[in-house]
Design a protein that fits this description.
The protein has 236 residues and is an alpha/beta fold. It contains seven helices and ten strands. A seven-stranded parallel sheet has the order 1-10-9-6-2-3-5, with helices on one face. It has a three-stranded antiparallel sheet with strand order 4-8-7. The two termini are 21 Å apart. Bound molecules: fructose -6-phosphate (F6R). The site of fructose -6-phosphate (F6R) has 13 residues, from loops.
Length: 236
Amino acid sequence: MNIIHVSSYEELSRKAADIIASQILMKPNCVLGLATGSTPIGTYQNLVKKYQQGDLDFSTLTTFNLDEYLGLTGDHPQSYRYFMNDNLFNHVNVRPECTNVPDGCAADPKAYGLAYDQAIADMGGIDLQLLGIGNNGHIAFNEPADVFVAETHTVTLDKSTIEANKRFFNSIDEVPTQAITMGMGSIMKAKKVLLIANGAAKKEAIEKSFYGPITPEVPASILQLHPDLTVICNLD
Ligand code: F6R
């Protein structure tokens, strides 16, 4: 585990983008696991800049996103598909058909989740997984629970997650209460994991996740067992 402390969001975003860019340069047909939320926005901006400068080519890679709200279609401005198109995919030369975001409107989410995991496995697994972390230690939408769930599955969001995400909606009542999320299986099977955390509100989650016991009550703590984990934090 490599924990890097930086002193600004800009530095965090630059470093994270450099790690992702190295992955793409080393293996142009790599599989990237991607995250949404406010933290990776600066990382994606840096990646777009590298693409615009001609330093990065996205045309042969494949992406799988971690999660999506249940009930939101991809054209809903708060859906994670919309977020990814808006913050990254529309600005680089990734092939749209090679970008995967879980379908929040899948008729049979259980079967869909298994098929999503199989699609990742069929691509040879994830080479580099980018993660944010919730204030409660969640990764993707794996909320504190009694057990770690391996497969892509549906979850009921924690009150604290709904509270944290209401800033993106007109009111808290509009925040979906359920989501479909990659489980720990595909995340832990990723060859490399890069977790980014920004702001004082994430301090406790980082401490509990990486300096405390491994427990599903703190979902990110399982990452202590990952053989190639980098954490970049700006916690001031
Ligand atoms: C989003 C995701 C979530 C976020 C987490 C932190 O795809 O998987 O786990 O990474 O909620 O969100 P921000 O970055 O908004 O603090």
